[in-house]
Amino acid sequence: MSLDLSAVLPADYTRGSFIGRAQSPEGPCAIMLREGRIYDLTQEVATVSGAIQRKHFSGGEEIGTVDGGLPGGWSLLTPIDLQCVKACGVTFALSAIERVIEERARGDAKAAARLRDQLEERVGSGIRSVVPGSDEAAQLKEALIDEGMWSQYLEVAIGPDAEVFSKSPVLSTVGHGAKIGVRSDSDWNNPEPEVVLAVDSEGEIVGAALGNDVNLRDFEGRSALLLSKAKDNTASCAIGPFIRLFDDGFTLDDVRSATVELTIDGPEGYRLEGRNDMSQISRDPADLVTQTLSEHHYPDGFVLFCGTLFAPTQDRDTPGGGFTHKMGDVVRIASDKIGVLENTVTTSRDAPPWEMGIAAFMKNLANRGLIEKV
């Protein structure tokens, strides 16, 4: 059964422009949605990163309508290809507190429950009231150091430098409808519903999608040096359904005020609801992009996870045990002006293997006579 595209797009999709990717029988294609119609850009520009770099959002071969869905034999992919995948962490006060809890509990969910109220009372109000990198933030840092409450996570929460890390290799992300993976040896983990910014090589933010930056709280809680092992695993990064491009009807201000809703439906009937309110972010999204660029250059552009307010503390099975995923959980992330991203949880070990890396992608385009269109 073909995907009902209208069900994963925002209600005003006919007034917006969306770029993404689809798998055709011949290989990946760059596609655009404009005025409710689907266009294949591939014969003109073969990659989403190339289309963004050249601002090639018009033209293309019409291949259907949103209501009619993708052509037979086609399926939706993640909307990015050659872009680097970056992420910022600890960008909300609550996430900072939760990271301190993980660190002090050494990844133990039950120990974390005992620390939560204490840290929220002593640290939470202070973090919420200061601007990161300000004189007030520096004064709060000194006070917390004196109280023995300082942490590396508080440094990136209120210090001058944001946490920026590489989330996932080029071409490794999964899209709407795909299985999303957590490590099979993780006992404490959760989804992270986020807004993902699409940025060109000059640093211009051109649009936004939704993302799930799966987090292993036990791994990172044991040591921040395990961040890469906690974050970068097969199928552990989902982006979709499309990148909505900025225009008169959708701007960075819409990102700044976006609400990202999360629901998790477990195979045993469990349900968890949460939200990520971007208006509560501690660092402006544009500043996060600037800090990601820093002294770097991304010739194919990049996408940037902005972080999340969501940090589940609801017990799932045992009192004090907190939340962790079960195989078969359906994770739905939605935002009114961006769309819906839904994935089913499996282990990274059992997820479909990642097979189309850069070499395979280039060979596919070359065999289709498209290598000059990248």
UniProtKB/TrEMBL annotation:
<keyword id="KW-0479">Metal-binding</keyword>
<dbReference type="GO" id="GO:0046872">
    <property type="term" value="F:metal ion binding"/>
</dbReference>
<dbReference type="Pfam" id="PF01557">
    <property type="entry name" value="FAA_hydrolase"/>
</dbReference>
<dbReference type="GO" id="GO:0016787">
    <property type="term" value="F:hydrolase activity"/>
</dbReference>
<dbReference type="InterPro" id="IPR011234">
    <property type="entry name" value="Fumarylacetoacetase-like_C"/>
</dbReference>
<dbReference type="InterPro" id="IPR036663">
    <property type="entry name" value="Fumarylacetoacetase_C_sf"/>
</dbReference>
<protein>
    <submittedName>
        <fullName>Fumarylacetoacetate hydrolase family protein</fullName>
    </submittedName>
</protein>
<comment type="similarity">
    <text>Belongs to the FAH family.</text>
</comment>
<dbReference type="InterPro" id="IPR051121">
    <property type="entry name" value="FAH"/>
</dbReference>
<keyword id="KW-0378">Hydrolase</keyword>
<dbReference type="GO" id="GO:0044281">
    <property type="term" value="P:small molecule metabolic process"/>
</dbReference>
<feature type="domain" description="Fumarylacetoacetase-like C-terminal">
    <location>
        <begin position="204"/>
        <end position="345"/>
    </location>
</feature>
